[in-house]
Write a structure and sequence with these properties.
This protein is 43% helix and 16% strand. It has eleven helices and eleven strands. A six-stranded parallel β-sheet has the order 3-2-1-4-5-6, sandwiched between helices. Strands 9-10-11 form a three-stranded antiparallel β-sheet. A hairpin with a 2-residue loop joins strand 10 and strand 11. Helix 4 runs parallel beside helix 5, helix 5 packs across helix 11 and helix 6 packs antiparallel against helix 7. The longest helix is centred in the C-terminal third of the chain and has 26 residues. It binds nicotinamide-adenine-dinucleotide and (2S)-2-hydroxybutanedioic acid. The site of (2S)-2-hydroxybutanedioic acid has 11 residues, from helix 8.
Length: 329
């Protein structure tokens, strides 16, 4: 029996993500938690004739505890989204506290669950989560994931458009680093099938993948950021976890993880300036992350340059998240 929880279930991502999860054959119980409207969203979804039993919880009456108890996987899209002109880091002041409090709930009521963090800035909210879990003595790096799948989805879509392939899903492109602007590093040189384009087309494509989020923020004109494509990406990641739990082998997703806790992670860390967190291709198994593939050693000179830029931004974002919990020295 698999219980999935969505924290932030009434929001722009939360609702379509919950819909997709309600349709999943891998889920038996779906608990929706939010500070508003979650019983309504749950009532609506509960009429769909698929097997998952749907329940909705608000903070009152120990709702977080009730939602989380028995959870196998918790997905967190709670928090405010960007408006035009904002960076993801501008969301830190509000979203850091939201993520800290939700993770505290997970540490208390669902310490063995897989935790998938969507809330931005992912480069900082995942380190926040790790520190909270460490404080409670329940940090398992193999089960904590920053969801960077939307960067992978975008790289597939935008690359297919540039090279004129009708089906973007044929592409397998590692996207490493973090989840904001130039911390997002698509490794087009490692794409399968190979991408053969001019250097100037490559530059435009890389920029579009790095700043794809801005396209949506601007198009929505102050009404939020990517929600539907994110729901798809979040669902893809949850299903990959649940497929691996169900025994499927060879399941790999790029995700922002704590490197040292996962086999292969220290090799990646040694290529970076000692970064603790990085998005990398991670093979998933029944107990979480099984193995990291070190793709950083096979990259082009151009991509080495992109990585150097990403390292600097990431180091600052990670430190900001860690300091939020452990305090500045
Ligand atoms: P939204 O405002 O539409 O929804 C957020 C939801 O969170 C709301 O329903 C709100 O009530 C709820 N919420 C707020 N505080 C909460 C708390 N303490 N506990 C539970 N729920 C709480 O926003 P959205 O468009 O769904 O975006 C959510 C987050 O996801 C943003 O931070 C956004 O930047 C991020 N995001 C990340 C990615 C990614 O690739 N990782 C992609 C898109 C958006
Ligand atoms: C995205 O990449 O679409 C999200 O991180 C939302 C944003 O703020 O751009």
């Amino acid at each position: 029996m698999v219980k999935a929880v969505v924290a932030g279930a009434s929001g722009g991502i939360g609702q379509p993500l919950s819909l997709l999860l309600k349709l999943s054959p891998y889920i038996d119980e779906l608990a929706l938690y939010d500070v508003v409207n979650s019983p309504g969203v749950a009532a609506d979804l509960s009429h769909i004739s698929t097997k998952a039993k749907v329940t909705g919880y608000l903070p009152a009456d120990d709702g977080l505890k009730a939602a989380l108890t028995g959870a196998d996987v918790v997905v967190i899209p709670a928090g405010i989204p960007r408006k035009p002109g904002m960076t993801r880091d501008d969301l830190f002041n509000i979203n850091a506290g939201i993520v800290r409090d939700l993770i505290t709930g997970i540490a208390l009521y669902a310490p063995s669950a897989f935790i998938l963090i969507i809330s931005n800035p992912v480069n900082s909210t995942v380190p926040i989560a790790a520190e909270v879990l460490k404080k409670h003595g329940v940090f398992d790096p193999k089960k904590l994931f920053g969801v960077t799948t939307l960067d992978v989805v975008r790289s597939e879509t935008f690359t297919a458009a540039v090279v004129g392939k009708p089906d973007p899903s044929v592409f397998k492109i590692p996207v490493v680093g973090g989840h904001s602007g130039d911390t997002i590093v698509p490794l087009l040189s490692l794409s399968e099938p190979a991408v053969e384009i001019t250097d100037s087309d490559r530059d435009v494509l890389v920029h579009r993948i790095q700043f794809g989020g801005d396209e949506v923020v601007q198009a929505k004109e102050g009404k939020g950021s990517a929600t539907l494509s994110m729901a798809h990406a979040g669902f893809r990641f949850v299903e990959s976890i649940l497929k691996a739990v169900a025994g499927e082998t060879g399941v790999v997703e790029n995700t922002f993880v704590y490197l040292s806790g996962i086999p292969g992670g220290d090799a990646v860390k040694s290529v970076t300036p000692g970064l603790d967190f990085f998005s990398v291709p991670v093979e998933l198994g029944p107990s979480g992350a099984v193995k990291i593939t070190n793709v950083l050693t096979g990259v082009s000179e151009y991509e080495k340059g992109l990585l150097e830029v990403a390292y600097t931004g990431l180091a600052a974002n990670i430190k900001k998240g860690v300091d939020f919990i452990v305090g500045t020295p």
